[in-house]
Each structure stands twice: as C-alpha cells, then as structure tokens.
Amino acid sequence: MLMQTHEARLDALRNELARRGLDGFVVPISDEHMSEYVGGYAQRLAWLTGFGGSAGTGAVLKDKAAIFVDGRYTIQVRDQVDGRLFEYKSVPADSIAAWLAENAGQGARIGYDPWLHTHGWAQAVGRALETAGAELVPVESNPVDSVWEDQPVPSAAPAFVQQDEHAGRSSADKRGEVAAWLKARKLDAAVISALDSIAWLLNIRGADVERTPVALSYVVAHADGTAELFIAPEKVTPELTRHLGNAVTVRPRGEFEAALASLAGRRVAVDPNFGVAAIFQALQAAGAETIAERDPTILPKATKNPVEQQGQRDAQARDGAAVTRFLRWLSLEAPKGGETELSAAARLHELRQETGLLKDLSFDTISAAGPHAAIPHYRVDEEINLPIAPGSVYLVDSGGQYADGTTDITRTVWIGPGEPSAEQKDRFTRVLKGHIALAVQTFPQGTSGAQLDTLARQFLWQAGVDYAHGTGHGVGSFLAVHEGPQRIAKPRGGQAGTEQELLAGMILSNEPGYYKPGAFGIRIENLVLVEPREIPGMEGEWLGFETLTLVPIDKTLVDRALLTPAEVAWWNAYHERVREVLAPQLEGEDRAWLQEACKPLQA
Questions:
Q1: GO CC terms for this protein (predicted)?
Q2: Is residue 1 part of a domain?
C-alpha cells in the first residue's frame, strides 16, 4: 500500500533517518547537475511535502520540519504544504543553516546528499552546525529514495543532435574555445556538469528533463580539445556517435565518479554553482587540484551567435502567431463562461502544436484566473483549477521549445463584459510604463542587470507598490527557458547573475508585474536581445534592446491618461511591428482580430 498522505511520508523518512543514525536531513529541489527544472525521479521535495514550485528546500528533524522558499512562492507554499507538518520560511531572510543550527541540538547528525548540493553550501552549513555543536554528514544513498516506493526512474530517452544549421557553430569549434580557455589558465581539464552546458558544448539535446531539452550526462573537457561524455548507453544512437566523432569518448554515466580518480595530480576546473559537493570531494580524494572557476561554456552559450539570433526571431514570430490566435479565441469564448484555467492552457498548447514545429513547452503554462493571477509562479492542476470568470483579469505566462529557439511570453487580459476597475487599470499601466522604460533604454557597455532593474519598478514605486520577483532572466536557444548568468533584478544575496554585465547577443525577459493577493495579478513579458547601439556623439560602446516577442498587448487595461507621448509612440510602433510580422501568418477572422488589436492609441 503506497503512502498517500504527506504526514505518512514524513513519518517514514524520520524512521529511515533513525535507522541510519541521523537526526535530520535536508531535501532540496535539485538533481545531480543543480538544474532548475528536474526530472520526475528528482522531485523529492514535491513527494515529501506537496510543494509544486521550482525552487525550495525542506529541512527535517526528529520533532519539527521547515520548508524554505523565496518571495515567488509565499502564497503557493501555504496552499500546497501542510503548516502542521512544516514551518514556512522565507529566503533570504531565513537561512537553512541558521534554522538547523538553532534547532538541531548538541551532537545532532544532520544528513545531506552530496550529489544534490554545491560544495559551497555544504561548507557553509557544515560550519554553522559545527559552531552549534552538531555535524553535517554526507550520505551514500538518499534516504528519501529508500522510502519513496513509486519513485520514477530516470528517463531512458535517446539523446539527439542539434544540427549546426540551428547551433551556428560546430561542437569542435566550441571545444576548441574551451581548450584555449583551459590553456590560458594552465588547467588540464574542466568538469562540465550543467546539463544545458553539455548540450551546448556538444550540440546535442535530449528529453530527460520535462520542458528542457537536455540529456542526463556529464562531460570532462580536456585542454587538447577532446572530451569524455558520460551518458547512459541506451541514450547513444548511431547518429549521435557519428556526430560526436573520435574526439569525444563516450562512457557509461555510472562510471563518472570513478573516472574522476584518473585526474589525480591534474589541475581541474569545477564551477562552484553547478559542480555538486560529491564532485569536489571525489577530485580531492583522488589528489587532483580543484580550481573553482565559472563553467567556460556559460558566457559563450549566453551570447547568441548570429544564426541563433535569427533562429530566435523566427521562433518568436511563429510562436507569436499561435499566441495571437489563442488571444482571439479567448476573447470570444471566455466571456461566455465555461472556460477554465486548464481548458485555456490546453487550447494554447493545441495552437502551438498546430505550427508543426513545437518540440515541447518551455515550462508548464501559468494559466491564472482572478486571484490565482496574484501568484507569480502559479501552477494549475485539477484540484485548484478555477473557471475564468467574465468580468475579471486573466494572466497567461507560457512558452514553447522549437529547434530554432525558446519562447517565453506573458499577457494579462481583461475578460469581458464590463470594464476593469480604476485600480486594475492603474496597476496595469504602471507595469506597462516600466516595461517600456526598460525596452527603450540604452546603456554603456559594462552595465549589469542590477543597474537596470529600477527602470521597470519606478512607476510602481511611485504608487507605493512593488513585485517580489526579478525583472528579467536569461533565455537559451532550444535550451533552458531560465539561462544564466545574466539577470535583471535587485542586487541582493542569493540573486546570482545580477552583477553580470550585459553583453551583445544575450537574450533576457522584460517582465515587470504587480500582484494583489486574493484579488488579481498583472505581468507583461517580452523577450529582448541585447544589441549594439549607435548614438550621435557617443563615447565608448553602447547597447540597447531589440524586442523579440511580438503579440498584441491588451489595450482594455490601459489608462491612457497615465501614458506620455513617448510611451504612446512606443506602443504604436510596437503594435505596427506586431501587425507587420504576424499578419502574413494569419488568415480570416484571426487576421481581422489582429488588425483591430494593433490599432494605434491616440497621442
């Protein structure tokens, strides 16, 4: 009989910990590659607690437990996780290390899985526990796996080739760049463990993580341009073998840890953000010198080459036509009643599939009606599915994976009949003004995302309101919809990437928002490409943004009186571009609806 309640699962875990002589255990949402989105086999926190977000950590002791999430999930965690079983903790204000040190007790042995945490995390938490008279203990096998009776197995899907026509560069060229990077630093090898980095470096893709086209694997890249790929044999097809060639040795994934011993006496780079504690520990035990360096593929992957840039434009245009067809459908059907969050998400998925080129969604669609729109990272299911009520705000944040690009777009629309309230129009227009301010900004080379973040918030701040998520994240090319290292967000602890300077070729989202708990939420999101800008009389190099996403924005929610002439001009130019690109892809009533939606605002 499978354990059906989270209380029973928590009890089973505590019994397993006691059997192993442990007084507690830390359960992150993580896999062996520090991925943001993980395969079903790695959804240990969701199984234990019911929490469905993409970021969070649980800490379990003998007599208490806590779950730690950031501001994106403050509402969601309370909806999904039983407060009788887990204390709600908010990061970065609350830290796991401090909570464990305060609650573990003298002599406590707290377990952690060294394949699911970074080396830095293990060191910091270990020090905090040591100060409190407790101990952080690595486990050889994960105790959650021992009690999770119906745990999914890792995907066996074959890996496949990302052709050069989409990648824009050969794998040999990329490996040569990594080899040059290693030689310049007098390093012998680099351990590449981030799945999207491996996919980019070798020009391969996979189907092992839902919504992210990557294959579970590891790479050791050497200074001579060769590499070793550790991947399950059933994933290796003849086509993949031919593609990789003689310079890439393919070995079973299960041999990876043992193979690290062959690097004894070598200088080996490991990214501290993606290299888990077990990798550092194995290298150090072997006598290798570990050098904490950023994964050398990170910046080249983030700065899209001209082929990738054009691929993104093509994908955005194709996806924009599908989303526009959805918005027309929504405008007709939702006011009748009878549509729900799930039915709308399903219809949008169908329309993307009708392009004939959709590989997958880029994340689970956030289809949020009424009060659910106030949950920034809401995820609908059968239990909480709301009807889309006439006379309300509806928010849909969605994206697609195509061989030539990854999309991510949010539109907030008014579902008639009736008119939005003055408050709803005010908040929507302030979000729009912030979106425009960021979209049109030029900035000198060397500018970071943190320096731009305030542009998007300024009009909300003037009204005494804000939003708890970042303004922009990086986006991959047929890869992760959240890609580092670039971000646009407030500079603060735990916000990796906010100090990274923005470089030409980087793609980011522009997505300010506003959320009134229990009432409504608003977000406007387009993807933008960092590109060089020419300014008369400029000194030095300057950059700006090309807006890639092309879908009408709902003018029903706009308070025209709050917009300046320059903002109206941006709106009109943007919608003229939307009409120009999308109209040739649409027919009949869809095209007529687009023409109406793209009519200019009067200056």
A1: cytoplasm
A2: no
The pLDDT of residue 353 is above 60 = yes
**One domain for residues 275 and 329:** no
**Omega prior to 92 cis, within 30 of 0:** yes
Element (H, E) at 516: strand 513-516
Instruction: Provide, rounded to the nearest whole percent, the portion of the chain with pLDDT above 90.
Output: 93
* Cα R_g (the chain), whole angstroms: 25
> Does one domain contain both 308 and 288?
no
107-153 pLDDT, tens digit each = 999 999 999 999 999 999 999 999 999 999 999 999 999 999 999 99
Last residue of a domain, one of 126, 147, 168: 147
- Within 349-446, strands assigned E span 358-361, 366-369, 392-398, 400-402, 405-406, 409-415, 443-444
**Which residue segment(s) compose the domain that 112 sits in?**
6-147
Q: Residue 495 — pLDDT band, cuts 50, 70, 90?
A: very low
Asked whether residue 290 falls in the same domain as residue 314, the answer is no
**Cα–Cα distances in angstroms (integers) from residue 458 to residues 184, 428, 445, 455, in the given order:** 43, 14, 23, 6
Instruction: Give the mean model confidence (pLDDT) for residues 197-212.
Output: 96
pLDDT value of position 42:
96
Tell me what the mean pLDDT of segment 465-491 comes to: 96
Q: What burial class does residue 121 get, using C-beta atoms within 10 Å of its C-beta: 0-12 exposed, 13-18 middle, 19+ buried?
A: buried
Based on the fold, state whether residues 124 and 172 are members of the same structural domain: no
Point out the least confidently predicted range of 204-213, 355-364, 484-493: 484-493
Do 314 and 191 share a structural domain? no
Whether residue 323 is found in the same domain as residue 279: no
From residue 43, give the alpha-carbon distance in Å to each of 81, 189, 253, 318: 15, 31, 20, 33
Which among 103, 119, 147 is the end of a domain? 147
CA 109 to chain centre: 33
Residue type, 44: R
What are the CA-CA distances from residue 463 to residues 13, 327, 438, 512, 594 (Å)? 47, 30, 18, 15, 33
Cα first-last separation, the chain: 67
pLDDT in tens, 375-425: 988 889 898 999 999 999 999 999 999 999 999 999 999 999 999 999 999
What's the total number of domains in the chain?
3
Residue closest to 69 by CA, chosen among 50, 88, 47, 46:
88
pTM over 0.85: yes
Cβ atoms within 10 Å, residue 241: 11
* Cα–Cα dist 530/545, whole Å: 5
| Gap between the Cα atoms of 491 and 450, Å rounded | 6
With respect to residue 568, please indicate whether it lies within any of the assigned structural domains: yes
Q: Tell me, yes or no, whether 141 and 166 share the same domain.
A: no
What's the CATH code of the domain at 129? 3.40.350.10
